Please model this.
Amino acid sequence: MKYILIVPDGMADDPLPELDGKTPMEAARTPNMDTLAEDGSVGLVNVTPPGMYPGSDAANMSLLGYDPLKYYTGRGPVEAAAMRIPMDPKDVAFRCSIISTDGTFLTDYSAGHISTENARPIIELASKLCGRARKLFVGVQYRHILLWNNGPMELKTNAPHENMGAKLEEILPVGESENRLRQFIWDSYEMLNDLPYNKERIGEGLPPANMLWPWGQGRSPQLPSFFSRHERTGAVFASVDVIKGLGRLTGLEVVDVPGATGYYDTDYRAKAMYALDYLKKLDFAWVHVESPDEAGHEGNIDRKIEAIERIDKLVVGTLIDGMKKLDHYRMLIVPDHATPVKTRGHKAVAVPYLMYDSDGARKRNTMPFDERLAQEKATLVDDGFRLIDGLFKH
Model:
């Protein structure tokens, strides 16, 4: 038996008037997931605990079977693990995003999805602002790491993608060492805003990469290995550091898939093909796709529907076809949270899941695999970290 977890990041949404009251999941053409739902089982799951922000870090930790209330420390150290950044027990890692601002408002959480090639010289230049205790590390696109030796933990920071259009003064860090971190943010703006590169971007109508924004701070979490918890070997197929970091922290094999970008242009089929190849020798494949979440944050309905349809055809469809030739399998498909296009941020709500067993009895399920399950009195898994137990049950 082989086991597959597919996480279409942020796929769940709210009903939209533009779609005649449907959600993007309802509106999308998903023949493969529809067939699996008919022959499998569907339900709802509260992925993150009540009161906890439904970020992809804590949510995916939960989907792997780890209780975030017990193990979660912050997003920064998870992404630092992905980048193989060694952390001292006193080190605090921040996710450090390159953002766009007009000096008053946060205008773009990703600096127009700046490329890694263009981000690298910006981070290298901004390293001059760090001093002895802090250090910047280049990540992917707009996602980077600020490591602070003996840094502050009692600090409230805000995620840029949750605060598009917000006034900077209202979302600046608050708490321990807030003045030092605020100074770093404003110094980065002064250093980057007038760069020729940013003047060119503004001239072309593109968002400038003119501020660094640290958030999601934490010390390195201590997670028991995936194998020790589930007695299965496995690998992760993802493009974003927060998912790769969870893979490294739990001892899963982290596979770099050529063409996986974390955006709309990602190579969906390649992720599935690589997963099939690794399933020849491993028990478990975790396939994460970021594009629905990006569409939600951008408020783009059409892009979100397109991303869902591509996941259905190129990820789910490819895996179904490949597994027919490989082995019996169980597949769990579940978004880690909702990212409604209207609010452009994450939403704490029970999300739909789909569980399918290729060797199981056909149930002829009539309930849909989408948000309508909330009105269908569907099964609810209240503790999200227990959902994966159903994938591995005997």
